[in-house]
Amino acid sequence: MKPPLRIAILECDTPLDQTRGKYGGYGGVFKALLEAGADALGQPDLISSKKGLELTTWDVEKAETYPPLSDIDAILITGSRNNAFDNKPWIIKLVDFVKKILAQDRIRVVGVCFGHQIVGRAMGVKVDRSDAGWETAVTPVDLTEKGKELFRQSSL
User: Name one Pfam family in it (predicted).
Assistant: First the structure.
């Protein structure tokens, strides 16, 4: 992908008051992170928070709006306090949208928490409640041999 890199942030929930007050919504959270990441690349003539990065937000939970596929290069699916395995109409619509994206090879997909579960569900993976209960925040992950090779450490 060459700049401009057009990323659609699919908002699947509204964050808690403190986060909403600072960023406006999950779209604002991820815009801040993606812009900081682009700036950290140190290539301001190519891509930065000011150039080469086009971020849009889409309310897929309440407004159920989606970007035209011709207008995006990637999607980021946010977290949510909803269950990715529920059959609420907006979740079914989101899963169907992700299936359409996974069926092609141009648009890239990133899912965060609930979002990665939606990606799994769109791929036909069984998504269900954890026997260990609800997980939130930072959780240590022991890496497989391939993960150790990729990240050059044994855990994240």
Answer: GATase
